[in-house]
Amino acid sequence: MLDENYICYLIEECIKIRDNAYADYSAFKVGALIIDDNNEMSFGVNVENASYGLSICAERNAIFSAVTIGMKKIKILCVVGDSLSPISPCGACRQVISEFSDKDTVIILSNLEKKYKIFKIDELLPYSFKL
Ligand code: THU
């Protein structure tokens, strides 16, 4: 169980990094962070493109950054966007999150008002594809 103050701190870090999102087409900025199995922190923001399909979500950017510095497993993933209820990751991100998650992975989804929900990957993506 995570301490409430720590959860707030993680959400605030996501809100700060979210400013760097490149969301010129949707105007929907998202910030994400990962605490990995080495207790390193990695960040990601969504980066859009004039060729819309090339855009990438904040979650996947955070995961790819974390893998780049040696992550094998996600301990904590926190994602924040300007949504009414806590943000809901897209299906593609759920599959990528599942690749680096296990039953202990904590997924914090929040909006800018720090209204958050905590999930396990099996709740976000039941019966996920695995090789
Ligand atoms: N987006 C994310 O980065 N994460 C989510 O959880 C939901 C959606 C991005 C994709 C796109 O750049 C913009 O938000 C609008 O869909």
Short characterization:
The protein is an alpha+beta fold and 131 residues long.
Explain how this protein is built:
This protein has 131 residues and is of the alpha+beta class. The chain has a single domain (4-124), classed as Cytidine Deaminase, domain 2 (3-Layer(aba) Sandwich). The chain is 30% helix and 23% strand. It has four helices and five strands; from the N terminus they run H-E-E-H-E-H-E-E-H. Strands 2-1-3-4-5 form a five-stranded mixed β-sheet. A hairpin with a 4-residue loop joins strand 4 (106-111) and strand 5. The protein is globular, with a radius of gyration of 14 Å. The relative contact order is 0.18.
Strand order of the main beta sheet, please? 2-1-3-4-5
Which homologous superfamily in CATH is the superfamily?
Cytidine Deaminase, domain 2
Q: Count of DSSP E strands?
A: 5
Largest sheet: 5 strands, mixed
**Cα-to-Cα separation, first versus last residue:** 30 Å
State the CATH class. Answer: Alpha Beta
Shape: globular
Strand content: 15-25%
Query: What is the helix content?
Result: 25-40%
- Which class best fits the helix and strand makeup? alpha+beta
Unique bound compounds: tetrahydrodeoxyuridine
The CATH architecture would be 3-Layer(aba) Sandwich
CATH third-level topology: Cytidine Deaminase, domain 2
Radius of gyration: 14 Å
User: Count the helices. How many?
Assistant: 4
**Stretches with pLDDT under 50, minimum 5 residues:** none
> What is the N-to-C order of secondary-structure elements (H for helix, E for strand)?
HEEHEHEEH
Mean of the pLDDT scores? 98
**What's the number of domains?**
1
